[in-house]
Amino acid sequence: MMPIELLDKPAKTARPIRLVESGGLAASGLSKKEARWAAANGFTGDAGQTLILPDDTGAAGSVLFGLGKADRRALAMGGLAKTLPEGEWRFADEPEQPDLAAIGLALGGYSFGRYRTIKAAKASVAIPHGADAGRVRRTVTAVTLVRDLINTPANDMGPNELEAAARKLAGRFKARVSVISGDDLLKKNFPMIHAVGRASASAPRLIDLRWGEKSAPLVTLVGKGVCFDTGGLDIKPASGMLLMKKDMGGAANVLGLASMLMEGKAPIRLRVLIPAVENSISANAFRPGDILPSRKGITVEIGNTDAEGRLILADALALADEEEPQMLIDMATLTGAARVALGPDLPPFFTDDEALATELAAAAIEMDDPVWRLPLWKPYIARLASKVADTNNVTTDGFAGAVTAALFLQKFVERAQSWAHFDIFGWCPVEKPWCPVGGEAYAIRAIEKVVLDRFER
């Protein structure tokens, strides 16, 4: 649910939103009467403060919003969404970062209402002057899609439903979707996707979405689609399963990113690959100690069935790599080690492309979409050694889990001109002005900018 509607132009009757810096009340252009009202209500312009100023009839006439001091984030404009009265509104002054201010405001009004009734005042806000309305709208649409997919519990978001979501998105943009499922995965040489998902009542599958002109540069997105993760026979504790509906967060994020690229008519040929499974427990579940073949021909000893995401990604990455894409991006809720290293808000990425790393770092700052590069530290590859197979899927010492997971994936990428792996959390654990607690999009604004900058030259 998004109670904030974005308008292209302000109506003549739209009431003003006035932005006030901390301690800047005197310079805000308020009348003496309005300034006295603000002071009497303790409004100082501190970050996130809001105050409704009445008009002569006593109705809401304008709104003051506090910007705070230095290092403020434009996305924090989302705090307005929870207090803005019903009706049409406009920015009295252009925000410093109009795109992000509009995105933050719209996303701040998000709530997940599929399973309960939510009553909220409907407010409309004109996109501020200077903003790229197309970018704002496609970003809000994409993030809403990501949040809705992740927030939906596994009983309503299994492999079947994830496939349906991909098909629905494809229908919006006349993209093509093909799916390989069940035992056909073995016939088509995706043995690790099949092994991870075969214990579920919902058949494992590989979802393949294609869009764009054949002559355009190929950008392939791969998203981890583990719709629920019990840990398999190396079962998680109960507390570890509480958020495992979000283990398809990588798939949700690449679908959101694909939505942005298609809606923005990016000059690329887009492919989206989602291995969709449930890591369940049954008599035919794969076991610790099993040795699995892979699409690439690398044999993998299973050191832990709870490291299943890298297995399904490996088969999908191997397929993607066969086409030699100009850019290959994978996104996955892959390791707890990434959270320990950088926390929930700062997703690490891994790449051996120095130019791509530089571009991502710059785009992350510009789009207020933080990411942080971690190293593909080659000496750690030895920790994935197996005495009976080409590689193990985990290490035994527990060190550098995010790095070794990325190194495992890199074994399956050889031909892509540029590859990056994002280890995302997919969840906002503490409410922010632009995001309630729940599923969240990570890095897709930054990645979209890099793709557009690279291929619109």
Can you give a write-up of this model?
The chain contains 13 helices and 20 strands. By secondary structure, it is α/β, with parallel strands linked by helices. It folds into 2 domains: about 5-130, Leucine Aminopeptidase, subunit E, domain 1 (3-Layer(aba) Sandwich); about 135-455, Aminopeptidase, CATH 3.40.630. Strands 7, 8, 9, 10, 11, 14, 15, 16 and 18 form a 9-stranded mixed beta sheet that branches. Helix 2 (about 100-110) runs parallel beside helix 3. The radius of gyration is 24 Å and the shape is elongated.
Structural class: alpha/beta
Reported for the largest beta sheet, the result is: 9 strands, mixed
Q: Could you say what the CATH topology of the largest domain is called?
A: Aminopeptidase
State the helical fraction.
25-40%
Query: Count the helices. How many?
Result: 13
Strand portion: 15-25%
Radius of gyration in whole Å, from Cα? 24 Å
Just name the CATH architecture of the largest domain. 3-Layer(aba) Sandwich
**CATH homology-level superfamily of the largest domain:** Zn peptidases
Low-confidence stretches: none
CATH class division of the largest domain: Alpha Beta
Shape type: elongated
Count of extended strands: 20
Report, as a whole number of angstroms, the end-to-end distance.
37 Å
Mean pLDDT: 95
Query: How many separate structural domains?
Result: 2
